[in-house]
Amino acid sequence: MAKRTATVERKTRETQIALTLTLEGAGAARVDTGIGFLDHMLDLLARHGGFDLRVRARGDLHVDDHHLVEDVGIVLGQALKRALGKKEGISRYGWAMVPMDEALAICALDLGGRPYLAYELSPRARRIKSFDVELVEEFFRAVVNSAGMNLHLRQAAGRNSHHIIEAGFKAFARALGQAVEKSGRVKGVPSTKGVL
Q: Looking at residue 187, what is its pLDDT?
């Protein structure tokens, strides 16, 4: 079976991003965005989703991390959409509940083509080192809108902001890995409409 993979490049006056996503991967990541916390979360995404992910991104970090974080989310969503193609035979839905120490995150998603984000992570800290935690929601919104994904990401427990966000990324990774799998039982597109 051919591997489902996609490479997307995005160049604006604010950011330059090259990203390759392989859905049938080994959890290997080579990520360099210039934002350490984002690199860590993308590495987790690849490892726990079972994807191979290469990201090289540069941007106007002297202004703010916002443009780069959001644009990486856009490009990741575009790559996911391209790699899935017509979405024939995929499981379509995925869900996961992931603990990390005192934190517990729950994720459910649908690759049905309708973008919607229900984001309910509530980290207490405003920043983790220099990373603005508000950008986590912006990242997921960008992924959702570009991929055409319905994503519910909730915090069931947690006090430590790093643990909360990391559990959220791991839950997303596990749910996404499940949703993109070829189920073996599904023939064609998993929708009564015949298209996703």
A: 76
